[in-house]
Amino acid sequence: MGSLSGKRGAPHTGQEGQGAFQDSSGKAGSFNAWEVFAPVSRFCAKVEDPSSIMDLLPRAIAAAQADPKGPAVLLLPKDVQQGLVAVREPALVPTAPVVRADTVARDRAVAALQAATGVLIIAGEGVAAAHARDELAELAQRLGAWVAVAPDAKDVFDNRDPRFVGVAGVMGHANVEDCLRRADVCLLVGTRLPAMARGGLDDALATTLVIGIGPELPFVSSIALGGDLGDTLRSVIDRLEARPRPCLGHAGPRPLTVPTASPGGRSYAEAVAAVEAALPEYAHVFVDAGNAGATAIHLLPAPRRGRFVVAVGMGGMGYTFGAGLGAAMATGQRTYVLAGDGAFFMHGMEVHTALEYNAPVTFVIFNNNAHAMCATREQLFYGDAYSYNQFRPADIAAGVAATFPTLAVTHAANSGQLQQALLRSNTTDSPAFVAMDFHPDEIPPFLPFLAALDQEPTESEVTFRERRRIHVG
């Protein structure tokens, strides 16, 4: 729950629509905070007078804690913030009724799962939010199921478990589709299967029975079991045979084959392998958008005892700096931030906050002097030989070292130096910063790009490949 206040707060209600500083009333053409926050929150209200906070605050908290959970927003004008409140018992907010899965739908789903010879579970971030990792693991055992994860949920299932088949969607593994085609049932747990998690799977999903467990309806046709995710999982587990089924064989996550690029850059895959070798099992990992993010989602196993957090929705680029810093300060555990130079130039000066509070966060910057994923998209799909998303070279490590002389900064020339710098950072309780340069033309494990390269090239794409010296296959 939050409020729109900044350092000074929204102006006095008597100044609304009068050109006051930070006016967010929507009057006289001013910014309308309610219209911005209401569509993306579970509850949004403006506190019109001090006494109403006694009723609105409990309602906001109840909405934020309801299922599905989410943010609640109270908008507080300056005079309301400074007003006196006669403390009284707040109005009782009716407890939201417990919504349980429809009995008929649940029985139908359980029957289908019992009869299935092959089940693919695709798990999402909702499993982490419901603290239901143990239930997910037990369900997979009882069903003998393969388990894939959505891109934003790598840490909800042990990535080293023999049942794990990888990531689903546009940054995912090809064997997820293979398992889906072999399965009688696809069971979605804690994910609505949005486009980023569904890419490449639509044809197989169309011919497979889908069951969804979670408070919101999946984006694909399914037998939907709503209500509290943890309660629904437990009710399904209790109706399955207690004896675990053996899992049908598979070869584990199969990485995509990406084309080679022109020499001079370092491989993202080698760099991610160096991160994996240095990553403590208790560390938290925050992965940003772009080429580095796609590679980490595809190749970097989630730590066994830490979180692996990515943002694949609106406004995700650069979020890792604040989010990773918050996790490091809240838990005291070593936290890794993996980001590209584009994200760094947006929000990277949170490094200053990490240094001020001596937070145990390691910033790893993959610098290709470009918004390279955007540049590749433009050139692959539009045939542009030049992109405004490519920049002049920048020595980010030197700049950060000069700005923060007491910060441990490394400019890694190769993956070996990267790994050594990360291992050093693990031995301290202080922040560290490591940058490594990459070629902007390297193509990440991203299905839309690879599919475009597999097609017969147009004349502009031939020029594009020659300019990049890309070899497919």
Please, could you describe this protein's structure?
The structure is a single chain. By secondary structure, the chain is α/β, with parallel strands linked by helices. The protein folds into three domains: 2-82, Rossmann fold (3-Layer(aba) Sandwich); 103-238, Rossmann fold, CATH 3.40.50; 268-468, Rossmann fold. The protein contains 20 helices and 15 strands. The chain has helices at 33-37, 53-65, 78-82, 103-115, 125-129, 133-143, 174-182, 195-198, 202-206, 229-238, 268-278, 291-299, 319-331, 341-347, 350-356, 372-382, 396-403, 415-426, 447-454, 459-468, and strands at residues 2-3, 43-46, 72-75, 119-123, 146-149, 164-167, 185-189, 209-213, 223-225, 284-287, 308-310, 335-340, 361-367, 408-412, 432-437. The strands form three sheets. Strands 6-5-4-7-8-9 form a six-stranded parallel β-sheet, with helices on both faces. Strand 10, helix 12 (291-299) and strand 11 form a beta-alpha-beta unit. The longest helix has 13 residues, at 53-65. The protein starts with a strand and ends in a 5-residue tail after the last helix. The relative contact order is 0.09.
